Amino acid sequence: MRRRDVMTGGLAAGLAVPGLALAKPKHAVAGDVAPEFSIATVNNGVHRLADMLGDVVVINYWASWCAPCRAEMLALDQYMREKAGKGLRIYAVNIESSPPEKAMRDLSAALSFPVGRRLAGKGYGKIDNAVPTNFVIDRKCVVRHAKAGAFSYDSFSRLLNPLLAEPRPVEVA
C-alpha cells in the first residue's frame, strides 16, 4: 500500500465521523468554569463547591489498589499540612464501587483533608479511565488543571503555589 493511499484513507475515515476530532471531553478541562459538585465524605459530611468560593480546590480521584495513588496521597497530605490556613481544600474521592469502609475511615483520620465516598456533579471523574486523576480549581472557580497521572510533592507545589498566592476575589454585595 502506498503512503498516499494510507493518508487518503485516514482522511476519509476522519470525515466519515463528523466532529470526532472536535468532540468535547466529558470532563472539565483547564480554562472551563468549574461545574458545581458536592462530595459526600466518609465522616458523613457534604462539601459543595458553592461553599468553597475563594479557595483553591483539589479533587483527587484514587483507588486503594493503586500504588501511585497511595504515594501521591502522602505528597498531598504533606503539602496540605504546610499550607493550612492558606485557603486550600483537598478532597480525595475513592472510585471503587465498594471501598473498604474501615480502611477509608482510618485513612480519613490520618490525613489532613477529607476522604470522599462519591462526588455528585457533571464534569468530574477519571480521565482516560485512569487513577489518579486530579482537578485543580482556582480561587475564581476556574479549572486550572484536569489530568490523569500522579503528582509528586514538587509538581504539586509548582502548580499550587502560584494559585495560592493569588488574592481572594472580592465579594460583590
TrEMBL record:
GO MF term list: antioxidant activity; disulfide oxidoreductase activity
Coiled coil: none
SUPFAM superfamilies: Thioredoxin-like
Recorded superkingdom: Bacteria
InterPro entries, sorted: AhpC/TSA (IPR000866), Thioredoxin-like_sf (IPR036249), Thioredoxin_CS (IPR017937), Thioredoxin_domain (IPR013766), Thioredoxin_ResA/DsbE_sf (IPR050553)
Domain Thioredoxin, residue spans: 28-165
Position of the signal peptide: 1-23
Keywords, comma-separated and alphabetical: Redox-active center, Signal
PANTHER family named among the record's database cross-references: THIOL:DISULFIDE INTERCHANGE PROTEIN DSBE (PTHR42852), THIOREDOXIN-LIKE PROTEIN HI_1115 (PTHR42852:SF17)
Protein name as it appears in the record: Thioredoxin domain-containing protein
Lineage: Bacteria, Pseudomonadati, Pseudomonadota, Alphaproteobacteria, Caulobacterales
